[in-house]
Design goal:
21 helices; hpI Integrase, Chain A; two-stranded antiparallel sheet; three-stranded antiparallel beta sheet; mainly alpha; 3 domains; 5 strands; elongated
Length: 441
């Protein structure tokens, strides 16, 4: 049976049991309310408001709630359709200790403002809101809750969060003091909008959201913006990073760098790759976030022996063996930090990260004139065109994909020059040979 729900006749009821020690004080053994639906899915959503209110009443009766908690509870009862009992309200509002009485006297005006609906406390509905975020991934959920809690440290009541005050908070606290980027501030404000909308829709907040134009358009010059954009790795960078990882005798990191450079895969795609998805001539990316991310990537000729060796040495069923999961289920977190320390030690800034190998792969293919639908297929990108994106089956010949992968060259620039000189020498020899044949004829 779902928690706090009972099926009675053809409908669902919300039920919360009152602790035995509080039943006399509250005058009932349990709280019960019809949810006016026979749908379990709808009942699961509707129950939260009742459960939160009843638990608040239990805490008030137990004496473990604050004055503000109890005032918010009474305000909710006053705005409900059913007129509350005055004696019940008085009982809830009664201070539970000398500390409560002292705090009540100190904050009387603010508490009265909340009681009469002139102020709307923001934090008291946060736990209810968190329960509605189960559709988000754990990392996204934690980030949203963290953003909202950051906001609530500054603004306790909705009335305090005027557009001017929020704008000053963004510019002076988030950007100037905390050093956050404009993009991060936009994400924070976007999450705050979601919480505010919830309060308006579900908790009777009457104020419109105060977030319009609170994030500045730009905090740096265009020249600075261009300098901070993420760049791609060149072959010399690859060799430098690979040699540094091998000098540290970090086999995991060395293998990861080679895999990233010769496949263009994301770091988590590689770190979560299981042995059954690593074939002799290809790897299968089957746990991507989007449908187009599920793809087959042929192994570059320079990776064949490495992957075979990694498969043979693996002790945990993963191609990159020995990594551990973080609390969000990612295996790339720790090794990603090791790569970050390595590249910083070599003098690479924040605009060059592991993802820069993926950008480097794209750059090489663009220089070679590789068709975009081919590179998109290998990288797991959407194809935006009508013909290849909408009508095509998007299944390219493996031989074509293999040929494209093998065009990636990560040797040092000097090696490119030596190869080019050698090719020119071969061409001259061929020309001399042909001239000799012509003279003989």
């Amino acid at each position: 049976m779902p928690q706090y729900l009972q099926k009675r006749r053809q409908g669902w009821y919300c039920v919360v049991e009152v602790p035995r020690s509080l039943r006399v004080k509250l005058g009932k053994p349990r709280f019960i309310q019809s949810l006016q639906t026979d749908s379990l899915k709808v009942a699961e959503v509707r129950k939260h408001a009742f459960v939160a209110q009843w638990k608040a009443e239990i805490e008030a009766a137990r004496g473990s709630s604050t004055n503000l908690d109890r005032v918010v509870l009474v305000r909710q009862k006053m705005t409900a359709k059913v007129k509350p009992d005055p004696t019940e309200l008085a009982l809830i509002l009664s201070p539970q200790s000398k500390e409560d009485l002292k705090e009540l006297e100190q904050n009387r005006h603010e508490l009265l403002a909340v009681l009469h609906g002139k102020k709307f406390p923001l934090k008291h509905h946060l736990s209810d809101y968190e329960k509605t975020l189960n559709h988000l991934e754990a990392k996204s959920k934690d980030m949203r809750m963290s953003d909202i809690k950051r906001f609530l440290k500054k603004f306790k009541c909705a009335e305090d969060a005027t557009n001017r005050e929020v704008k000053d908070w963004v510019e002076q606290t988030l950007i100037a003091e905390d050093g956050l980027s404009v993009a991060t501030c936009r994400r924070i404000v976007s999450n705050l909008r979601q919480y505010w909308k919830y309060l308006v829709d579900k908790k009777d907040l009457k104020l419109s959201e105060p977030f319009k134009d609170v994030v500045p358009a730009r905090t740096m010059t265009r020249k600075q913006e261009v300098a901070q954009r993420r760049r791609h790795f060149e072959p010399d960078d690859y060799q430098k990073l690979l040699e540094a990882s091998q000098e540290k005798e970090d086999a995991q990191l060395s293998n990861l760098i080679q895999l990233g450079a010769f496949t263009g895969c994301r770091i988590e795609e590689l770190c979560s790759l299981k042995l059954e998805s690593a074939k002799d001539d290809r790897i299968l990316i089957e746990d991507a976030k989007t449908e187009t991310g599920w793809r087959t990537v042929p192994l570059h000729d320079d990776l064949i022996d490495l992957v075979a060796s990694m498969k043979k040495e693996s002790k945990d069923g993963y191609l990159i063996s020995g990594l551990s999961y973080n609390k969000y289920g990612d295996r790339s977190n720790a090794i990603g930090k090791r790569f970050g320390k390595l590249k910083l030690k070599l003098g690479y800034g924040s605009n060059l990260v592991f993802h820069s190998f993926r950008k480097g792969v794209t750059t090489q293919w663009e220089r070679l004139g590789i068709a975009e639908n081919v590179s998109a297929n290998l990288l797991g990108h959407d194809i935006p065109t009508m013909t290849y994106g909408l009508y095509s089956g998007n299944k390219l010949d493996f031989a074509l994909l293999k040929e494209t992968i093998n065009k990636l060259k990560w040797q040092k620039t000097a090696l490119h020059i030596r190869n080019s000189s050698h090719d020119q020498t071969d061409n001259l020899e061929s020309l001399r040979f042909l001239n000799g044949l012509i003279r003989v004829q």
